[in-house]
Design a protein that fits this description.
mainly beta; five-stranded antiparallel sheet; single chain; five-stranded mixed sheet
Length: 220
């Protein structure tokens, strides 16, 4: 039986072979670029001093059969700089909303709480760099009817577990609160604040998902 010499690799050739094929793998591993706060800027979020947040159920091909409900539509617009990665693998957006029962309304306090704190985290995959990127959340209509109007909105952009950009809007009793009120125990753990779940939802799960659909990032 013939023996083929090329089947026996010399130690030197084996090392060269390993280096040759390992190089592309090392290159790929080093390609991921860290996203820094300098690469991201939140340009605008929905304000709370007027009725910018208040929107009626959108007409999506059919005329409303009855009275249109009012929703609390929260938008955030941000830019990813040219030196940012071409794509961010995953962007987490944390939305926080504080509702307040105004003294001049006929809303009765639930559990004696004047304020309601709503939170939502939404994940977005493969976010491309560029300007005018948009994400959104929506306060359900009955939450507004029962718990009041937004007096505080905060948005955090998070990549790899690190907050890279934040912005907030405040009015009412929150107007003069300094710093990150949505993380301040004196605010969020106050005896007059109730933490309520399920009232702030991803825009993609509401009728607004069909409005200006190409302007918004697609959530997971």
């Amino acid at each position: 039986m013939k023996k083929y010499a090329f089947c026996r690799l010399s130690p030197l050739f084996a090392v060269a072979f390993a280096v040759l094929f390992a190089a592309p793998c090392l290159s790929l591993a080093q390609e991921k670029q860290v996203v820094t706060p300098a690469m991201v800027a939140i340009k605008k979020i929905t304000g709370v001093t007027g009725n910018e947040w208040r929107q009626k159920t959108p007409n999506v091909g059919t005329k409303p059969a009855g009275k249109q409900r009012e929703w609390g539509v929260i938008d955030a617009e941000f830019d990813l700089a040219a030196n940012a990665p071409k794509f961010i693998d995953e962007l987490v957006v944390n939305f926080t909303v504080m509702l307040q029962v105004a003294p001049n309304t006929d809303i009765r306090l639930v559990d004696g709480k004047k304020f309601s704190l709503l939170k939502l985290s939404v994940r977005y995959a493969d976010v491309e760099s560029g300007r005018g990127k948009k994400v959104g959340a929506v306060i359900l209509p009955n939450a507004i009817l029962r718990y009041g109007v937004p007096v505080g909105i905060a948005v955090d952009l998070v990549v790899d577990g690190k907050t890279i950009a934040s912005k907030s809007e405040q009015s009412g009793d929150l107007k003069n609160v300094k710093g990150r009120w949505w993380e301040d125990p004196k605010v969020v753990d106050s005896s007059v604040v109730a933490k309520r779940e399920g009232l702030l939802v991803d825009r993609a799960k509401t009728p607004f998902s069909l409005v200006s659909i190409d302007e918004y990032e697609v959530s997971k």
